[in-house]
Task: structure prediction
Amino acid sequence: MTPTKPGIVTVSLNSAIDQTLECPGFTAGAVNRVTSETRTAGGKAINVAAFLAGGDLPITATGFLGADNTQVFEALFQERGILDRCLRLPGSSRVNIKVVDRMGGTVTDLNLPGLQVPDGALQKLTETLDALARDNSCFVLSGSLPAGMQEDAYATLTARLRSRGAIVVVDTSGAPLKHAVAAKPDFVKPNVHELSELLGRALSDRTEVVRAARQLHATGIELVVVSLGAEGAIFVDGEGALLAVPPRVEVASTVGAGDSMVAGVLSARLAGRSLEECARYGTAFAAGKLVRVGPVPPSQERVQSLMRSVSIHSLSDA
Result:
């Protein structure tokens, strides 16, 4: 990936507000007391923008926001210096509620419905992307699709952006991912379940995962990263295949961990780093995020420290 113009644009079609409620001893069907509450702007592409902000390249966020609850997004953009090119649509962006019971070791998710995207909105977004492509080299299409949007939306946007010479990253799942990979983005990051679903077969062990990632790379996708959760991630490109295993860290929240890996790997890749350097940096960046709630990037000092503890294993024989 060699950028020809400065700037990264993240595209959020289904932005969300992540609301976390700390509720010791949470019991369904009973009155529960919440001890603390946090609200952060979310959605995968919004998270990626937040993780990348403050680096060497200007960051722009676009996509859709509900006009009724934009404040938390606008506050994030202003705080992190992210250029806001999001389209406002009638209604509210979805809210994802997590009820965290640290005493019981449980997390309960309550996901509210989100926006209904009106006719013509995708065309307006496409026009915005065309304009942004004149000054930005890289576009990150990340997250689920809102209700009423065609499953091939990411594929359509990928093909359009690639035709304009842009580098395209896709991180989604299900049918949108299946359509998108046919348009040959430069970088995809499925987890094992998503990769299995994409290829239509079970991936019973690590060897099968590596073969599947190589199969995806062979279709013309330059970089494939398969997340294995706490076990790390598999990285495949033209240089070969690697397994990167993160060091053990204290975990405050796993929300956005995959998005932080996308941000870390992408920033290293755009800087011209090798596959091993991208794997080490992206894994350390993701591990450093785990100690914070919300899309808060780790300091570069913390990332550099964690990089020394990332284990890299060659998978050339898999």
About this structure: The first strand starts at residue 8 and ends at 12. The CA atoms of residues 213 and 294 lie 29 Å apart. The chain has ten helices and 14 strands.
